[in-house]
Amino acid sequence: MNWETMQVYLGLGDTKMHWIVRVFLVVLITLTINFIATRILMRIDKQLEKTKTPWDNVLIHAAQKPIGVFIWLAGLSVAAEISGKELDPNFISFIKATREVGIIALLTWFILRCISESERTLTSSNKIANKVDYTTASAISKLLRATIIITAVLVALQTLGYSISGVLAFGGVGGIAVGFAAKDLLANFFGGLMVYLDRPFAIGDWVRSPDKNIEGTVEHIGWRQTRIRTFDKRPLYVPNSTFSLISVENPSRMSHRRINETIGVRYCDFSLLSTILSEIKEMISNHEDLDTNEIYMVNFNQFGPSSLDFFIYAYTKTVDWRTFHDVKQDVLFKAMQIIESHDAEVAFPTHTVHMANDSQMTLLSEQTNSPEQNSAKQSQREQESTKQSANKQNSK
């Protein structure tokens, strides 16, 4: 059925009726059909919400707006053709091309909405048993969107009478020039592609790099750059090509968190050290928040400057940062209680000062003076001794 037949079928082909009245009727009919279609789609959507599968809702949600626009496109194109016949017959060819391009655009819009709804469903819907990783779903959806848009543009150009072969030939030759001019952009693009394929991290992961001053939570992975929110809440934008040049650590994927603490007791508590270590090790083995399937140790480590040092080495079951510090605090508190229960004390850096008497101070002063000062003092003492001897002889 062509547009002329449709106009006759709707009673709009009557040449005796004024063309303005016919345009008004077309707009009124379009408005009515759009209203009815919207109500029907809303009712269908409510009914499909009760089903177990989410894909029927995906199609309805994706089709709601494009169907409404399609109804208006069809109605307005009919109205434009009626007006064109009366005003400018050459305008009809333009209307036809516009209608065809509009249909291509609506179909493309519908497919893009299907992709977006599918991505949302696969990552967050409660009706999906095995949810897809958001990073993977985002990468696939972006590739599909790019493919659909490029295909739609080529089809639209072909519809408008342009040669696709010429466009493709230009793309082949121009691609080389663009490749040299946009080397960094392409490096970031392929760097983002490697991030999507290798998946060293995903959105929401805590990452850091020992090679660069990069640490924070991944918020967005784009084709050109990745946005990381640092712990002081500042956004950090990292070009994707950087990740192919540095090593990246992903603490979010750790299986355990480690406690590795050194504690020192006084030297005078040496006789109690063996018992203290045994009780702390028993406490570690019975702690419900520590994984005893992993290695754990409590051993004397070294003779410190002012303490006998031993270390506690264990792994927690939790990987949550806040919970880990609660567990670590509990372990250290219990270790301190065990030390105090044996009347021992945790050592701290101390200095011993020995006070010298007067004779020792004099000797120390002589030792610290220079040789010239010592010889002068020696001469002075000899002169005083000679005077004392002369005085004794005179008195005799």
SSE layout:
Blueprint: H1 3-9, H2 19-48, H3 55-87, H4 91-124, H5 134-159, H6 164-181, H7 183-198, E1 206-209, E2 214-221, E3 225-229, E4 235-239, E5 257-265, H8 270-286, E6 297-303, E7 308-316, H9 321-341, H10 358-368, H11 371-395
Antiparallel strand pairs: 1-2, 2-3, 3-4, 5-7, 6-7
Helix pairs in contact: 2-3, 3-4, 4-5, 8-9
Detailed description of the structure:
With 396 residues, the chain is an alpha+beta fold. The protein has 3 domains: 3-181, no CATH class; 199-252, SH3 type barrels (Roll); 255-379, Alpha-Beta Plaits, CATH 3.30.70. 60% of the residues lie in helices and 12% in strands. The protein is built from 11 helices and 7 strands. The chain has helices spanning 3-9, 19-48, 55-87, 91-124, 134-159, 164-181, 183-198, 270-286, 321-341, 358-368, 371-395, and strands spanning 206-209, 214-221, 225-229, 235-239, 257-265, 297-303, 308-316. A 4-stranded antiparallel β-sheet has the order 1-2-3-4. A 3-stranded antiparallel β-sheet has the order 5-7-6, with helices on one face. A hairpin with a 4-residue loop joins strand 6 (297-303) and strand 7 (308-316). Helix 2 packs antiparallel against helix 3. The protein is elongated and about 145 Å long. The N and C termini lie far apart (159 Å). The mean pLDDT is 78. Residues 263-345 form the Mechanosensitive ion channel MscS C-terminal domain. Residues 361-396 are annotated as: Disordered. It is a multi-pass membrane protein. This is MscS family membrane protein. Keywords: Cell membrane, Membrane, Transmembrane, Transmembrane helix.
